Amino acid sequence: MNSKSTSSIDEIVQKLEYYCSYQERCHLEVQEKLRGFILSENERNQIIVHLIDTNFLNEERFAMVFTISKFHQKKWGKIRIKNELKARKISDYLITKALQSIPMGEYYQCFETLSEKVWDTITEKNELKKRKKFCDSLLRKGWESETIYQKAKELANTAN
Fold it and tell me: Is the alpha carbon torsion for 91, 45, 4, 56 positive or negative?
């Protein structure tokens, strides 16, 4: 038998408290972790309620931390962040609230810096191919398409 299946409820709670304190987690991640233990649905629900009551698990806090960290560390745009939060089953209300926590001035400054860096690193000589690579790169990071296309035109015009 594997050790996960024979753990007591208290041991499982302790493991999940550590799991949640090590890094912010969403409900979905905790539910996935709980599937590794042999528990009844009622026991799983009790553990989740305990984690919420003791503030180890907080969806709003998770959404805020996730949004700010992905924006600052990975330079993701709002579309990518929103899609990633939706994939984790975060409510639309919390997604909107988290996205509003990004300062707009900082958001556009990040886009400007990132777009110029991406443009400069693309070595393609054909202008249309270069613009496509530029747009694809920033679309993957979740930036708004109209902003990307406008910036691509601007950068292409300054290069000529």
Answer: positive
- Whether residue 63 contacts residue 98, with contact meaning beta carbons closer than 8 Å, is answered with yes
pTM for the model stands at: 0.88
For the chain, first and last CA: distance in Å? 68
Task: Tally Cβ neighbours within 10 Å of residue 124.
Answer: 12
What's the token pair of residue 36? Answer: 């590794």
**Token pair recorded at residue 90:** 């975060």
CA-to-CA separations, 67 to 40, 115, 116, 134, in angstroms, rounded: 33, 20, 23, 24
pLDDT per position as a tens digit, 49-104 = 999 999 999 999 999 999 999 999 999 999 999 999 999 999 999 999 999 999 99
